[in-house]
Design brief:
The complex is a heterotrimer of chains A (about 400), B (about 160) and C (about 280). With about 400 residues, chain A is α+β, with helices and mostly antiparallel strands. In chain A, about 30% of the residues lie in helices and about 25% in strands. In chain B, the strands form 2 sheets. Chain B has a 4-stranded antiparallel beta sheet with strand order 1-8-3-6. The chains are: A alpha+beta (about 400), B alpha+beta (about 160), C alpha/beta (about 280). At the A-B interface, loops of A face loops of B.
């Protein structure tokens, strides 16, 4: 473990760019922390934090000038590994004959800076889905091959976070090249950095940073342990998959989905939701056609369309499909839960439906006498200047 | 007569009847035979008989002017044809026509009606039997109402 | 080379021949010359057929599994893509991805009676299984086909059905929902034929394909005859975009119809089979 300061961290941005990486990280735009190109530490959300609650998200400034003192915004990294829109191939028609022209996979190399442990787990889940089956997603494979991941541990989990419940955080597991923990120690702002790969080790060597003291490492461990207890949300996951498998006819789905608008926001912000549709577009002359893959949502009517009818007509059935897929059938399909506890679906649901509350209800119904998982509300973070 | 009793006893329903009841029913029965295309009964006629089909195939039809005969059901060997004889006004609702050479046992409706009124045990067994046939046919008809192979109209 | 290791990239196959089957169904035979594409398939599998600029549809393969290098598809025109495919002529190219999915376990029926129940266009995905069963006829006990269609005009492969009907080693029953004149087969839903045929119920393998509602009643009738649940196979249909388990559309509970199916042993999907809006 080594210690980086702001300058060495900035050197990492430069080193990555020099190695041909497109560097993606959190940055403030439209009153939210989104993921986009970042050229230096100055593009990070320096001094910004957020308040999140069901159906609510507000940015505000904090005093310390931290780079990573916020929790996930609406974007997840899937937009770079599994883009919202992707051309699959082009086709040309000439004299009644057609030619199919494969789309070259991107050769863009991405470095992802600031991947939270929950999102790192989500990438692991996508690896399982797109790379470990009989057929692979070749575009994902190319994007994944060239990836450099800088994870950032969470010391200050948000109000809608529940990664502890899902076993994905707040400390990053595996799958990163580098992992950072942002520390403020005696007015020093630095980043404890560890490596998780050969590429990560090489990067640290390049940055020639001093090793961290055992005392600091200990301090960091303690803080991360404490962070694990500060989740704004919690759910019990034992037996949950089974409970939901048997929940199909449970009348509670009516109540759980009563407010649902079937807007699909939860699926768009979810870092693991992977459903996609394809569209065919032709130019006006009909000489060329393109087949495009787009993110789809199980909340769309067309999603379950089958010759002349929509199988899942009701919003209830769509909400039930989403929750049972995420928390139950995913396990049979891919060997893990489809939820990483990032909390985005709670924050970005326009009517504030809370998946932890819904899951908890099934627990309560089965074991009325047992205590449901405790939900702690955090104190609002220190505010300097509220945005808007 | 003895011969008819034997034939009747091979049918699933009559197999369960007591020898006494079998004898009674056999007293109302006779062997009949229809050539292909021959009408067994016609819509509107008096329904005085029903048939245990022993061999062949019978179509139950309704004639649609300018379109032909709409086949409502096919009755095969081992099955029973006709129930309009059971209830007033005792008139056939459809045509029945032998599709192939058909051999059957015809049971005299008037005769059976009289005997079942005299002997409620026999009447109960007959009615149970016909009720189960009607259930099968009603279920089959309802399934056809679903029109499961139809093309969706909103594509 | 990358393109051809990409399962989302169609291969071009030319239409060798086309044939009108009924007023709304047709059969196209495609030549498979592309070395990157498998020239063989297993009965019950499907291909994704791409119509230039319009879209892609999953269509089961209806040809003989031993005739390699040809992909035969029997298609009902009911959507924009299938209606477009219906207009294509011999020699014209179609994009093909596949074959995909699970298959009818014809060998599971070795030493047993094989009962095939088909409804409507559902006969098409079963035809390769029938061909395979006939090619290995001596391995089976009885071979029975029950086929139902809406009307005599909707009966698929009628000439072939008549040929099969004449065979002494195969029993074929045909039925329609609506018949006007000159129909000397059965009338009524196909599932009602199940109690009328003789087979050794606890030693029978049943393969069922047709509209989902017809399969529901078929299972009811087969269970009434005490055919074991794990001897009943059905072919399911769901919305499909990728055919390789990556697009999420075809989920039936935890099953992906495209890669876990389309052919399932009934007991595997029983918990999800008769659920509304699942």
């Amino acid at each position: 473990m080594v210690l980086l300061d702001r300058n060495t961290l900035n050197q990492m941005f430069e080193a990555l760019a020099e190695s041909g990486f497109t560097v993606i990280g959190p940055t403030v735009r439209d009153n939210a922390i989104v993921l986009d190109r970042v050229n230096s530490i100055n593009d990070l959300p320096v001094g910004w934090t957020d308040d999140q609650e069901r159906g609510a998200y507000r940015l505000k400034q904090e005093t310390a000038g931290a780079f990573f003192n916020f929790t996930n915004g609406p974007h997840s990294w899937k937009r770079f590994l599994y883009p919202p829109q992707l051309t699959l191939f082009n086709a040309r028609r000439r004299n009644g004959d057609i030619e199919l022209i494969p789309e070259k996979p991107t050769d863009e190399k991405f470095a992802l800076i600031g991947v939270r442990p929950c999102d790192l787990a989500a990438i692991g889940i996508h690896d399982r889905i797109f790379l470990k089956d009989h057929h692979v997603d070749t575009d994902y494979r190319e994007r994944r091959k060239n990836l450099f991941i800088v994870a950032v541990n969470c010391l200050n989990p948000g109000n809608t976070c529940f990664c502890t419940s899902m076993g994905t955080g707040p400390t990053a597991g595996t799958g990163y090249d580098l992992v950072l923990t942002e520390l403020f120690d005696e007015d020093q702002h630095h980043f404890l950095a560890g490596t998780g790969s050969v590429a990560g080790t090489k990067m640290l060597e390049k940055l020639s940073a001093p090793p961290a003291s055992p005392a600091l490492l200990h301090h960091c461990d303690e803080m991360l342990k404490e962070a694990a207890t500060k989740m704004g949300r919690n759910i019990r996951t034992d037996e949950l998959a089974d409970m939901l498998r048997e929940s199909f006819d449970d009348p509670y789905w009516q109540e759980a989905s009563a407010a649902c608008l079937s807007c699909g926001n939860c699926t768009m912000v979810c870092p693991t939701c992977f459903c996609a549709t394809v569209e065919d577009v032709t130019d006006l002359t009909g000489e060329t056609a393109t087949r495009v893959r787009r993110w789809d949502s199980c909340f769309n009517g067309e999603f379950s369309y089958i010759h002349g009818g929509i199988l899942r007509q009701s919003t209830l059935s769509r909400y039930r499909q989403w929750v049972t897929h995420k928390l139950s059938s995913w396990e049979e399909q891919f060997g893990s839960s489809g939820c990483v506890g990032c909390g985005r679906c709670i924050t970005w649901c326009p009517v504030g439906i809370d998946i932890t509350e819904v899951a908890g209800k099934f627990w309560e119904k089965k074991y009325p006498s047992r205590k449901k998982a405790a939900t702690k509300r955090q104190q609002p973070r220190e505010v300097l200047i509220p945005v808007n | 007569m003895e011969n008819l009793e034997k034939i009747l006893a091979t049918h699933s329903f009559f197999a369960d009847l007591s020898p006494k009841h079998l004898e009674t029913v056999a007293g109302c029965a006779k062997n009949v035979r229809f050539e292909p295309g021959e009408f067994i009964f016609k819509e509107g006629e008096a329904a005085d008989q029903f048939y245990l089909i022993r061999y062949g195939q019978v179509s139950v039809d309704s004639h649609i002017p300018s379109r032909g005969d709409a086949t409502i059901d096919m009755v095969h060997a081992g099955e029973v044809l006709g129930w309009s004889w059971l209830f007033p006004p005792y008139r056939w609702h459809f045509d029945a026509k032998a599709v192939t050479l058909t051999r059957a046992i015809a049971l005299d409706g008037k005769c059976i009606r009289r005997k079942k009124d005299e002997d409620h045990e026999l009447g109960y067994r007959l009615m149970s039997f016909f009720a189960s046939i009607m259930q099968d046919m009603l279920q089959a008809t309802r399934m056809r109402l679903v029109d499961m192979y139809s093309q969706p109209t909103n594509v | 080379m990358i393109a051809y290791s990409n399962p989302m990239m169609p291969h071009l196959c030319r239409i060798n021949s086309r044939k009108k089957e009924t007023h709304d169904t047709f059969t196209i035979t495609l030549d498979v010359n592309d070395e990157e594409m498998s020239p063989v398939f297993r009965p019950g599998q499907f291909n994704m057929l791409y119509l230039y600029g319009v879209g892609e549809v999953p269509i089961s393969i209806s040809g003989h599994p031993q005739k390699t290098g040809k992909m035969v598809h029997t298609i009902r025109s009911c959507g924009t893509v299938t209606r477009g495919l219906a207009r294509l002529k011999s020699g014209m190219p179609v994009g093909v991805r596949g074959p995909f999915g699970s298959s009818w376990p014809v060998t599971h029926a070795y030493g047993r009676d094989l009962l095939i129940v088909a409804g409507g266009i559902g006969l098409a995905p079963l035809r390769p299984a029938i061909y395979q069963a006939l090619a290995h006829r001596k391995h089976f006990g009885k071979l029975i086909l029950l086929y139902g269609a809406r009307s005599p005009e909707d009966v698929l492969f009628y000439k072939e059905l008549q040929t099969w009907q004449k065979r002494s080693d195969m029993t074929v029953y045909l039925t329609v929902d609506h018949a006007i004149s000159d129909w000397d087969h059965h009338v009524g839903v196909v599932t009602n034929l199940i109690p009328r045929v003789n087979f050794d119920a606890d030693d029978t393998v049943a393969m069922v394909c047709g509209p989902e509602i017809m399969m529901r009643y078929a299972i009811m009738a087969l269970r009434n005859q005490e055919v074991p649940e794990n001897h009943i196979y059905l072919s399911m249909e769901r919305n499909m975009k990728c055919a390789i388990g990556l697009c999420g559309h075809c989920q039936l509970g935890p099953k992906f119809v495209c890669k876990d199916g389309p052919v399932f042993p009934y007991h595997r999907i029983a918990p999800y089979f008769n659920k509304r809006e699942i």
